[in-house]
Design a protein that fits this description.
The protein is an all-alpha fold. Helix content is 85%, strand content 0%.
């Protein structure tokens, strides 16, 4: 637990340091305001992709049945994939798209990934519950 907390604090310090450095560079006239905003948003997208990549690797305690364990693993894997791709798309949008498009499309991409993640998890666990109910009714 301490190792995970240490990495989270280091990542938070990196993000804050990057935001500070970009703001400082903007204040010194080295970069424009758009570049500073884009830099922070790209970093946010990459952090989202990185954390989403770790999702399937941290499943947690075992479930009550093998079917529930398989459903949980599938849901976390789908969530990891969809959020990792959304993080990469978010970073790419902020890096290359016009600001107006990057703002709206970035939110839409991440919201879509959240809908896919939650929707699949609900579907997988409902199917698991129905299957468990069907086997106990016999």
């Amino acid at each position: 637990m301490t190792k995970r907390l240490g990495w989270a604090i280091a990542l938070a310090a990196l993000m804050l340091g990057s935001a500070f450095a970009l703001r400082y560079a903007e204040g010194q006239g080295m970069i424009g305001a758009d570049t500073a905003k884009r830099g922070v948003q790209v970093l946010i997208g990459l952090v989202l992709a990185g954390y989403a990549n770790l999702m399937p690797k941290r499943l947690g305690p075992a479930r009550a049945s093998a079917r529930a364990e398989a459903a949980a693993q599938a849901a976390v894997r789908i969530g990891g994939w969809s959020l990792a791709l959304a993080g990469i798309a978010y970073a790419a949008l902020w890096a290359f798209a016009p600001l107006e498009i990057a703002d709206l499309a970035g939110m839409a991409v991440v919201a879509g990934a959240m809908v896919v993640t939650v929707g699949y998890a609900v579907w997988a666990f409902a199917a698991c519950r129905r299957a468990d109910a069907a086997t106990t009714d016999r």
